[in-house]
Design brief:
Length: 413
């Protein structure tokens, strides 16, 4: 084989290796360093450096071989030099440093030009054979430098992309925080209207979140149900303050007026683009009952969205466990009896069981925070019988589910 053919094959091999190196997703500096060594190896050169630049100013050294640490210290590129590189007048470029570079043994300064931009320079020198650079050498150098330039350009694009994605993510997080803060402000506004139930919406949001988490909902769904809890009574904003604040049971006319609030809530929430699904429906159906005796639509079990079932339980639980103008709050034992009796009629038993499990975990000290305990205030969830009440409730509900499953099985057969 002729020496020139052999050299050509060798160069092709080096280019193929270079392409593979650059396409790899590994460490950027390592990629540039390996590429430079391939170039130096292919031409048997003793010295080389790859520097980056983005516009006029100092050069950033990415890889260096066979040169002292200070070899490129203080070397800068200016606008005119960039222009001359882009115009193909390489010999004139970096002429201000010609002497310094020559003293370091650098003979060639080759620009990496990608998409009309100088992304960096490759500095080379010290042919092992002592010969001058041939035209073939120049061809090889140009081809390999182009490859390295593309690698650097791609890396920069990926970096910009990652940066933009990070900015977008931060922006999105900010928007979510703003949305959540706005919603909480609304919740506070709803509660201010009702002077007897201060903090009710906030607590319903938190209870709903605790139940959904216990049911194994995703983090996003849990956030959504919390929002729905905060906003469930937003429709009360259109109800007369005197009706909301009536100290005793209200008459049929006023009751009808008050019962407009789930539909009103839906009307208010439906036009808004919420970052979570079904918020308007959870507000609309939080007074529905499994037995169909709820309002506004008298839906039954399967027709009621799961989120609305959760908010409904959270809402009733808070109503039972806080003082109202016409009655004191009920004891925990009383509340458990009510939940047991109304599971399958008003409440979904699976939702009640999940809430009971979450409270039980807190009572047994298995959770990091005692959130339910805190909301109910000191002393409410204390005493040995609290644990027994919860365990019994969960057991009985589980037995209900098994019976229901067995019945469904028999019907299917
Ligand atoms: Fe309500």
């Amino acid at each position: 084989m002729e020496p020139s053919t052999q050299k050509l094959i060798h160069t092709f091999g080096a280019l193929a290796d270079l392409g593979q190196e650059i396409a790899g997703t590994g460490d950027f500096t390592e990629m540039v360093r390996t590429s430079m060594h391939l170039l130096l190896g292919t031409l048997a050169l003793r010295r080389g450096a790859v520097v980056e630049c983005s516009g006029p100013g100092p050069l950033r050294c990415v890889a260096i071989w066979g040169l002292g640490d200070q070899a490129l210290h203080g070397v800068e590129i200016d606008e005119a030099e960039i222009e001359s590189f882009l115009g193909g007048e390489n010999r004139e470029s970096l002429s201000r440093y010609r002497e310094k570079l020559a003293n370091e043994g650098i003979e060639l300064v080759v620009p990496m030009i990608v998409r009309g931009e100088v992304t960096g320079l490759v500095l080379l020198g010290g042919k092992a054979s002592g010969e001058e650079f041939s035209n073939d050498d120049f061809e090889t150098i140009r081809a390999m430098v182009r490859h390295i330039g593309v690698g650097i350009h791609t890396h920069r694009l990926l970096e910009q992309l990652a940066q933009r994605a990070e900015e977008n993510r931060r922006l999105y997080d900010d928007l979510r925080t703003i949305y959540r803060d706005t919603v909480r402000a609304f919740a506070a506004a709803i509660d201010i209207k009702d002077k007897y139930t201060q903090g009710h919406s906030e607590r319903v949001g938190r209870y709903s979140e605790i139940i959904a988490r216990e049911l194994g909902w995703s983090e996003e769904e849990v956030e959504g149900i919390q929002i729905a809890g905060y906003l469930h009574d937003i429709g009360k904003l259109i109800v007369d303050r005197d009706i909301i604040n009536a100290p005793y049971h209200i008459d049929a006319k006023n009751s009808n007026e008050l019962n407009r609030h789930p539909n009103a809530g839906y009307e208010i929430l439906a036009p808004i683009r919420h970052p979570y699904a079904d918020i308007p429906f959870m507000a609309k159906h939080h007074h529905e009952r499994l037995d169909g005796r709820g309002y506004p639509d008298g839906l039954t079990d399967q027709q009621i969205p799961m989120g609305a079932k959760i908010v409904s339980l959270a809402d009733s639980f808070d109503a039972m466990t806080t003082d109202r103008p016409y009655k004191r709050r009920r004891s925990f034992e009383d509340v458990v009896i009510d939940l047991r009796e109304n599971s399958g009629k008003q409440f979904d038993g699976k939702v009640v069981a999940a809430f009971a499990r979450a409270i039980l975990k807190e009572v047994k000290g298995e959770t990091r925070e005692r959130r339910v305990t805190k909301m109910l205030g000191k002393g409410y969830l204390e005493g040995e019988q609290v644990e027994t009440l919860l365990v019994d409730l969960i057991t009985e509900l589980d037995e209900d589910f098994s019976r229901k499953d067995a019945k469904a099985q028999r019907t299917a057969n």
